[in-house]
Fold these 2 entries.
Entry 1:
Amino acid sequence: MRTAYSVETVRAAERKLMAELPEGALMQRAAAGLAAACAGLLGRTSGTRIVLLVGSGDNGGDALYAGARLARRGAAVTAVLLAPDRAHPGGTEALRAAGGRTVDGPSAADPARVMAGARLVLDGIVGIGGRGGLRPDARIWAQAAREAGARVVAVDLPSGVEAGTGEVAGEAVHADATVTFGTYKPGLLVDPAAGRAGALRLVDIGLAPHLPEQPDLEALQHADVAALLPVPAAESDKYRRGVVGVVAGSARYPGAAVLAVAGAFGGGAGAVRYVGPAADAVIARFPETLVHAGPPHKAGRVQAWVVGPGLGDGPDARRALDDVLDSDVPVLVDADGLRLLDGDRVGARRAATLLTPHAGEAAALLGASREDVEARRLDSVRRLAGEFRASVLLKGSTTLVADGTGGPVRVNPTGTGWLATAGSGDVLSGLTGSLLAAGLGVVDAGSAAAYLHGLAARFAAGHGGAPVRASQVARALPAAWRSVRG
Ligand SMILES: NC(=O)C1=CN([C@@H]2O[C@H](COP(=O)(O)OP(=O)(O)OC[C@H]3O[C@@H](n4cnc5c(N)ncnc54)[C@H](O)[C@@H]3O)[C@@H](O)[C@H]2O)[C@@H](O)CC1
Ligand SMILES: Nc1ncnc2c1ncn2[C@@H]1O[C@H](COP(=O)(O)OP(=O)(O)O)[C@@H](O)[C@H]1O
Ligand SMILES: [K+]
């Protein structure tokens, strides 16, 4: 499991750790890890030109000390001091003593000349102390680094992103890699900031014992998902494995029913019940499905419901939604179900409810704009979960799952832009419902499903990448299971 902590928590842990160590030792640990990561990335340091972009805080200090270490290995290191009178004094001295040179950033005539021939640029402009986007002078240097074609390695975080939220208010550095210290920060895992971080490398500086048990964010890895996935025991029967009910599709959108049922089979349910007007289409594709034409509560035993994909917004759709919400088993509400949703009814439920909006649906539920939700994903998912007293899975380039009780938010590390295709959300609904029916908690079910779904999409897109259809994502689910369990 990858975990991330808020800036306040990181600061508090750092204070405790620093109190145990000699002055400056922590920064040396960070710098040593950073220098080693850079050396690994470069392959050869001797004679290599490296430029450091150095701000006024300890983030710049890390860059300077790492630069000194690389200079001692033969690199030609130039530090651009963006605030020359406030640059870390010890770091500046160490770099000069190691043979590195410094340039006064604000008065340098030609950033392109300073950057010429640089293979690596270290972004030590700001770290967790940064507020707002890059300021104009820093922006010029970040752009010069890009134009020089150098690899950009961010120190702790790409400068200009909000460490605690993943928001980007203005311009931020685009890094090829980020070397972060002690723990991940939310901004490294949540878009849009995560999209600026490149490949992540965590340097152990001994912070872990001082961090609280409960992180702010969690990202599952293969082993975590493998431990969650239900596997039939010798004496399993279909009810023990879980029966999932799918209320989806309409005369207009029969495909949504087919895709949700495909996802449900891909999640390993013992049986899938389908309720709705698209039974013929469902049976044609999946003859294993148990279909029912009456109200959901008459369909027979079900351990979790999925309601909403392609349901339409007519009176039948509303009745079916309310019927399912009246049940005492976990319910996943998606798509049209979200448009018809009665918040009071959700709040009154005793069993778990999981809402799975994309940014547009989340915006409608929050009375915000889509852009707003996409810019502030973490805040949006937490607010939705709080307002609806339900768990929420917010879909998109970073899929997040929040439980509404202030527990850690799960962030999905798999996926690909190829997944942004019509119907892929329907597959995710069925898949998640299947895991709910197997008895997983809502946050586990949502995050394990998002993980498998993203992995399946990557497999379907193949090496190098190619367009995929939602049904191909469903078809790749067994491969995703095998990859995780293997
Ligand atoms: N204290 C330590 O011994 C350690 C510090 N660490 C490093 O220290 C960093 C935090 O250092 P600081 O607390 O000094 O803070 P930063 O170095 O992140 O930045 C603080 C400075 O940047 C200025 N600033 C804020 N926003 C800005 C913006 N948008 N543009 C330009 N300047 C801006 C502030 O005025 C302040 O002077 C971490 O990110 C990490 O890199 C880690 O190495 C762990 C050890
Ligand atoms: N840029 C992206 N990168 C990765 N995954 C994405 C991106 N955009 C959308 N997705 C994923 O694709 C799926 C789309 O679901 P949704 O928006 O509900 O589509 P539909 O309603 O057509 O099924 C979700 O799982 C979502 O997380
Ligand atoms: K930085």
Entry 2:
Amino acid sequence: MIYTCTLNPSIDYVARVEDFKEGHLNRTSDTFVYPGGKGINVSRVLKHLGIDSTALGYTGGFTGAFIKDFLTEEQILHDFINVSEVTRINVKLKSHKETEINGLGPSISIENQQNLLQKIDNMSEGDFLLLAGSIPPSISDDFYAEIAKKCNGQGIHAVIDTAGEALRKTLSFQPFLIKPNHHELGELFQTDVNSKEDAIFYGKKLLEAGVQNVIVSMAGDGAIFLNKDTVLISNVPVGTVKNSVGAGDSVVAGFLSQIIQERDLSTAFQYGVAAGSATAFSEDLCTLEQVEFLRKQIVIEEVTR
Ligand SMILES: Nc1ncnc2c1ncn2[C@@H]1O[C@H](COP(=O)(O)OP(=O)(O)O)[C@@H](O)[C@H]1O
Ligand SMILES: O=P(O)(O)OC[C@H]1O[C@](O)(COP(=O)(O)O)[C@@H](O)[C@@H]1O
């Protein structure tokens, strides 16, 4: 089974404003409302690709209810812990540029943190647990590391998609996969990652730190996959970016959708990049048809070391 855990889900309110002017009254030309948060996006893309998962995390209030109803409607299993404060709303403003305002999120009690850890006790060896997105301010940035340690002890494949200290602290617990984008990778090493060579250099440092598989996504500039046996480079297909929210999550979902079916790493990587681009080229998250179509344009090359 694949579990996704979103500690800080959101409603993503996507507002298109033709000529946004700061400090003025602006009116939208189009709006969309989606359930958001990285683990939830991964569960949704997995479902689109025909793979079941169970979404975990914390939800509260009318916004939390919207997320649960949406997932139920899409026949996605979920087992969220209810909290008293409302789930946040993240604003995604589309104008000349993409601007995002992500909320802080509700506070999570120690008791509810323990409740989540107990759910992990009931998972089985060989399961996958995705830990994705920011950690709400009420939870220590050690929390993902604590979960990664539990996963390591229980033979659960931890997949981590977060940034900064919360990510760094998980590395020594041998997560199965991490997927930083090139900015997040640079941030980990207090540098800028500007090229594929840089991404390979710093990606190898993540392997040395204990991570089993690394994908570095570089938006429109391709992606890199690394593990102890191989380094793969991918192009990305050409297209018009409509809404890149959830594109990184789609890379993770596309990759996992193939790994769970025991496909080889190169196929899984290709599928991940196809899913990322298919989402970037869509208003909402990608569909299976879009992924299958874009996949044919993606060439995976092995780097000889
Ligand atoms: N301009 C683009 N052209 C094609 N694909 C893109 C583009 N921008 C993003 N993508 C797709 O989305 C994926 C994730 O994007 P990226 O910005 O690297 O990650 P994140 O969304 O985590 O910040 C990329 O690997 C790629 O598949
Ligand atoms: O938890 P964070 O870091 O605030 O991110 C939450 C946001 O990330 C998203 O999951 C999108 O993530 P990506 O664009 O990185 O794939 C949105 O749905 C959500 O608003």
